[in-house]
């Protein structure tokens, strides 16, 4: 071996020791550990969820709660984090699965080892003790549509956007919206289920096309987070703000301008902060071997009276009422 | 052999250091048998893909295989869809498993042969060819599965590949070690191995020497494809489901592992044992960071640092890479030593 590679070895050794020093503080604790794993770290939605996990930790010093997630949107990377956490021996996992199907095998192994598994945004997960959803998807879709109908004076042409036709929740939302609109004879659905792929630009182009095709269109109901931005811009540029109604899923911060200009009538969402707290609350209850019952209060806003159903597997499906509909007047209360 | 031995020693030392570091920060639980098993069972997927990349790189002339993980997913998806159309995972577990494994490996083989034929017969640059086939494989997997996860289930044989231990070692890891051993033997003891390395070193000389160039290329990509098929089997065995977009980050990590193992991107040199150790080192490091509760962004940083370190070593020892150590079969070549 050359003297150079010996130097390299020495250098690596020093680097390794430095690395150990920097993370040496994190030694195994006695308190039960609840590990929250999100789809991707570093995006606003899950940063907001992290504030919930931090708040939960402050309110519950008898557990150790922390959040982690992959740096890239890849279900295999998330799987690896969950695997390592299981091996590390955490007491409970609170996971927002990138892809529920990919995690089934690992969750099964985790549960066999006595780890409590709680999930969110995965009402089709079989291997979980409890899946926490912010609301019933059908109720949410109906509520969005009701708000749209109110704005449209319950008559006129309207259309729907979904992230993709394969997106389960989006299809549930617009499906419930269509059901709701049947109550009003004057409402006519045209060209439904446009795919937006959560791309604001593509949605903008598509919305312009639809506005040209149906000049008398009165309303849009959208699903993916960026749809309101694309459709809102199309409405704004066509000078139709206030004349064409737009209700869809969106976040307050990015939608602020368009809400102010009137291009967006109202946005619907759930607060990931509260969802993170609710997941941890459920995990703690399960760790304490307490039963989760219908109508229970999880101590988190929007989850004060949860409805509990049997999930697709052996686990429970816990539905909160964490739905938020915000318009020009109210969006400032939820700035994230 | 001096410098290539250095690379091996360095990888071994790094693995040792990472284990010690893990033991220190976790108070010993990093070395618990369960964690060692958990890490060992995570290595095979990426390790096998890295061996495939290594083979393609060794072929020289810009050889690389970007289609690895896409082909692995296609193998799993296609085989699951076809096999479950005539067999049920619950009723005939063993038959299902065997058919699934055969289907996945055959799909991988077919994909690899397509890559090899395109590259050798049509003379398409490997990076462009495999980029194209990567998209084609992924697209086909989407079409076949309709974009959804395909349930494979856990019939006995598959489930034991994914979950069971033999002498306390995960079966998937043993499988990985055996396959790596077979590929290493293939490179060391068969004419194919010699042709591959010499062709990578100097394609023109290989051509004039009358090497079966096309045959070697097709065989190389076919082996890489079969390894992908096996990865598909392991993914299915561990995750119960297969999906077209699983492991989209694996592509670059596999290349990272190969380069870290000292495989020369310009061809002609690569050792399987180094790739295995390098895959284990990356796994240890990422598990270590997860144990420490550090952000995953730190992990990318640490990997990058590790890669740059190895590249620096490789560059400095460039004279060593030209030494006869590559093949003991031709020790008579005189080696000019450049002064340092």
UniProtKB/TrEMBL annotation, chain A:
SUPFAM superfamilies from the UniProt entry: Periplasmic binding protein-like I (SSF53822)
An example Gene Ontology CC term for this record: outer membrane-bounded periplasmic space
Annotated transmembrane regions: none
Keyword set includes Signal: yes
Localisation: Periplasm
Coiled-coil stretches: none
Gene3D superfamilies noted in UniProt: 3.40.50.2300
Pfam (any one): Peripla_BP_4
Keyword terms, alphabetized: Signal
One GO MF term attached to the UniProt entry: carbohydrate binding
Periplasmic binding protein domain sequence ranges: 34-291
Signal peptide: 1-28
Family: Belongs to the bacterial solute-binding protein 2 family.
PANTHER family per UniProt: ABC TRANSPORTER PERIPLASMIC-BINDING PROTEIN YPHF, D-XYLOSE-BINDING PERIPLASMIC PROTEIN
Protein name: Substrate-binding domain-containing protein
Species, as recorded: Shinella kummerowiae
Lineage, top ranks: Bacteria, Pseudomonadati, Pseudomonadota, Alphaproteobacteria, Hyphomicrobiales
From TrEMBL, chain B:
Keywords of this entry: Cell inner membrane, Cell membrane, Membrane, Transmembrane, Transmembrane helix, Transport
Protein name (database record): ABC transporter permease
Bilayer topology term: Multi-pass membrane protein
Predominant localisation class: membrane
A GO CC term assigned to this protein in UniProt: plasma membrane
Chain segments annotated as transmembrane: 12-34, 71-89, 95-118, 165-187, 217-237, 244-263, 269-289, 301-322
Lineage: Bacteria, Pseudomonadati, Pseudomonadota, Alphaproteobacteria, Hyphomicrobiales
UniProt-listed Pfam families: BPD_transp_2
Record GO terms (molecular function): transmembrane transporter activity
Record carries keyword Transmembrane helix: yes
PANTHER family, sorted: ABC TRANSPORTER PERMEASE PROTEIN YPHD-RELATED (PTHR32196:SF21), ABC TRANSPORTER PERMEASE PROTEIN YPHD-RELATED-RELATED (PTHR32196)
Location(s) in or outside the cell: Cell membrane
């Amino acid at each position: 071996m050359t003297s150079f590679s010996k130097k390299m070895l020495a250098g690596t050794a020093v680097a390794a020791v430095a690395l150990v020093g920097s993370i040496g503080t994190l030694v195994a604790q006695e308190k039960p550990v609840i590990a929250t794993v999100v789809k991707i770290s570093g995006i606003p939605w899950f940063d907001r969820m992290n504030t919930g996990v931090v708040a939960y930790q402050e309110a519950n010093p008898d557990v150790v709660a922390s959040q982690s997630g992959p740096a890239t949107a890849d279900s295999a990377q998330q799987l690896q984090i969950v695997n390592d956490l299981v091996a590390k021996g955490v007491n409970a996992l609170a996971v927002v699965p990138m892809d529920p199907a990919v995690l089934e095998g690992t969750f099964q192994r985790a549960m066999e080892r006595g780890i409590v598994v709680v999930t969110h945004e995965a009402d089709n997960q079989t291997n979980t003790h409890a899946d926490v959803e912010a609301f019933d998807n059908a109720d949410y879709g109906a509520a969005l549509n009701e708000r749209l109908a109110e704005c449209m004076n319950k008559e006129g042409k309207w259309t729907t956007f979904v992230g993709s036709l394969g997106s389960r929740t989006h299809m549930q939302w617009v499906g419930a919206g269509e059901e709701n609109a049947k109550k009003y004879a004057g409402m006519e659905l045209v060209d439904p289920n446009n795919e937006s792929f959560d791309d604001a630009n593509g949605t903008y182009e598509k919305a312009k096309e639809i506005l040209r095709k149906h000049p008398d269109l009165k309303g849009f109901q959208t699903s993916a987070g960026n749809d309101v931005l694309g459709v809102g811009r199309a409405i704004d540029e066509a000078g139709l703000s206030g004349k064409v109604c737009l209700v869809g899923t969106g976040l307050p911060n990015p939608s602020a301008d368009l809400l102010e200009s009137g291009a967006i009538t109202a946005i619907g969402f759930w607060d990931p902060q509260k969802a993170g707290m609710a997941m941890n609350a459920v995990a703690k209850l399960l760790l304490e071997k307490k039963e989760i019952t219908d109508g229970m209060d999880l101590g988190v806003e929007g989850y004060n009276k949860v409805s509990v159903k049997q999930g697709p597997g052996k686990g429970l499906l816990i539905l909160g009422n964490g739905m938020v509909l915000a318009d020009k007047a109210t969006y400032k209360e939820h700035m994230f | 052999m001096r410098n290539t031995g250095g690379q091996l020693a360095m990888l071994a030392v790094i693995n040792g250091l990472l284990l010690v570091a893990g033991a220190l920060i976790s108070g010993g639980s990093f070395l618990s048998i369960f964690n060692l098993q958990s890490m060992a069972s995570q290595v095979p997927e990426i390790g096998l893909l890295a061996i495939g990349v290594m083979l393609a790189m060794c072929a020289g002339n810009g050889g690389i295989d970007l289609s690895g993980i896409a082909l692995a997913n296609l193998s799993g998806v296609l085989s699951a869809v076809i096999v479950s159309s005539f067999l049920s995972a619950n009723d005939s577990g063993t038959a299902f498993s065997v058919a699934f494994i055969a289907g996945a490996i055959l799909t991988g083989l077919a994909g690899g042969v397509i890559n090899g034929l395109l590259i050798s017969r049509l003379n398409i640059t490997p990076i462009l060819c495999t980029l194209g086939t990567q998209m084609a494989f992924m697209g086909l997997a989407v079409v076949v599965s309709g974009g959804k996860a395909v349930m494979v289930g856990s019939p006995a044989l598959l489930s034991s590949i994914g979950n069971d231990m033999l002498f306390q070692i995960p079966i998937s890891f043993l499988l990985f070690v055996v396959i790596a051993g077979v590929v290493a033997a293939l490179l060391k003891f068969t004419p194919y191995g010699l042709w591959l390395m010499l062709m990578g070193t100097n394609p023109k000389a290989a051509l004039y020497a009358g090497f079966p160039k096309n045959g070697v290329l097709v065989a190389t990509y076919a082996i890489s494809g079969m390894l992908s098929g096996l990865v598909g089997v392991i993914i299915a065995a561990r995750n119960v489901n297969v999906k077209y977009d699983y492991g989209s980050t694996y592509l670059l990590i596999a290349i990272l592992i190969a380069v870290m193992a000292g495989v020369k991107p310009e061809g002609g040199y690569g050792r399987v044992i180094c790739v295995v150790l390098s895959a284990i080192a990356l796994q240890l490091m990422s598990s270590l960071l997860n144990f420490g509760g550090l952000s995953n962004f730190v992990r990318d940083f640490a990997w990058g640092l590790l890669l740059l370190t190895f590249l620096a070593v490789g560059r400095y020892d460039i004279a060593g890479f030209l030494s006869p150590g590559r093949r003991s079969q031709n020790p008579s070549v005189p080696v000019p030593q450049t002064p340092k």
